[in-house]
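[audit] Reproducing an earlier prediction to check determinism. Same input, same settings, fresh worker. If the tokens differ from the archived copy the diff job will pick it up downstream; this log only records the rerun itself.
[audit] input (343 residues):
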Amino acid sequence: MKKPPKNTVICGDLFDELPTYSAESVDAVVTDPPYFFDGLFGEEWDDFEDEKTYQKWCQEWGEECFRILKPGAHLLAFGSNRQHHRLFTGLEDAGFKIKDTITWHYGNGMVKSRNVSSMASDEQDVPDGLGTQLKPSTEFVVVAQKPIQEDTIAENVSVYGVGALNIDETRVGVVGREKGRHPANTIFDEDASTRLDDQSGELSHGHWTGEDTDGYGEEREYTGPGDYGTTGGASRFFYTSKASTAERTLDGRIENDHISVKPVDLMEYLVRMVSTKGQFVVDPFTGTGTTLRACKNLHRDFLGVELDEKWADVSRARVGLAAENPEVLLTDDDQTTLTNYDE
């Protein structure tokens, strides 16, 4: 067995790469695996025989991640609205403990519903207004943890450096508060947060005074907005991610038309949640390297494994590494400017 390489992107199959790495050598896994959209986008990497085959596959790659993770380390993985239960169950079967589910809400989901009346023949009596699907606006992130090996979480953190969530680095910032609000298991993108605030309107959050002597607040008094409180829409209680076309393409210098690129800001938030500065994060489904870019921004070591040669090179460019086949990605001049890219 060998130590997994750091700060690099490997073009290869995770089932060939991860088994060669030393056990308990990784601090966290943050990844966005195939969703099994059942052929919706015609992508080979998303082609599975059926739901149970997909679940078994999730268990298999989960077992590889489980082995290389340190005791108590976390794995975060995205899942679709239809098949996330298969992902979760597969990871549970791989040995992980499912700790929570983070929901990411976004406003620009593609409507894929079909008009049923337009599908009907002249002999079929089908009323107008019937469709086949809801508009997607939510994705799910499983918060899975390899069981701790020590007697307590505190002891496990002391021994292995992992086992707890990085709460203070993921608090939701509030003007007038020293730390910010405790992170929730709900995340909105900018569009979704705007829509939420339009519905909630301007709200105020007050604070309590006095001592909570019986655990039910009977001896406390609610004073209305004060030092603790803030005003604003309901989205201020949650983290808000922001997507950018420029971040996909490094301001237009590379081609990046991948169908499932996540916002860097979102991935930074998730990486912070399960790791600390200087720790080692692995993404076995690297895609275009958003998780790796987030790690670099946050001074975490990273390793990406990507099956497709094109996306592996896009990932390399996005973290400032030399592309193996730059002619299919960018010009020689651009390659020179992107090496050790650190915008």
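[audit] rerun output stored. Observation attached for the diff report: The domain at 8-112+133-203+233-338 is CATH 3.40.50.150 (Rossmann fold).
[audit] end
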